[in-house]
User: What shape does this take?
Amino acid sequence: MAQPLLELLEQHGVAFETNYEPARFSAVFGKTTTAHFVVRLQAADFEPVRQLEETANVQLLAELPSNHYLFGFTNEELMELLARPDEWNGLDVALASRLLRERGRDLSPEAVQRLRQRRVAELARPADSSRAWIAAGYGLALAGGLGGLLVGLHLFSHRRILPDGHRVPAFSAADQRHGRRIFVLGFVSALLWGAAQFAYGPLRLR
Assistant: This one.
């Protein structure tokens, strides 16, 4: 699926890196990540590459088969697609725009741009983490385990990349403060537990 994008980048001399990220299970966070094939660009190249994709996709529209699945979408479904372009490939976005115009919907480039900006603003809003997760982070930190450090680090340092290339904090400012406290508490707790183990030896049940 990424091959057309890679060919476009090579054709126009745009620097990129690729990486395959397999699915992984995190025992700390209790979930499995999705496998991804990642194409990395410089942040300054996001918008120029998006424009290159749009130009290339317009040329590909004439080659689409008549049974393409988007032809069965309603106007409302096509507008929903345009409101979330990051969840679809560029060709689908270009076809949705064309179909709406052909159906008499007044969809100017400015309107599409406003939809895209609204989506970026929506994605930029930090998520609220689970209260139970934060409580577990404090518990793990007090126990001196690595889990507390990982939870704390994730809360205050994790960033998301927006469709326009900007990186924003994944969690709210309040959750980031919790993350810093959990990390510091976990670090101090680990030192104290380590010192106790060194001074008194491993604890044994009698």
User: Anything to note?
Assistant: The chain has two domains: 3-124, 131-200. The CA atoms of residues 134 and 155 lie 9 Å apart.
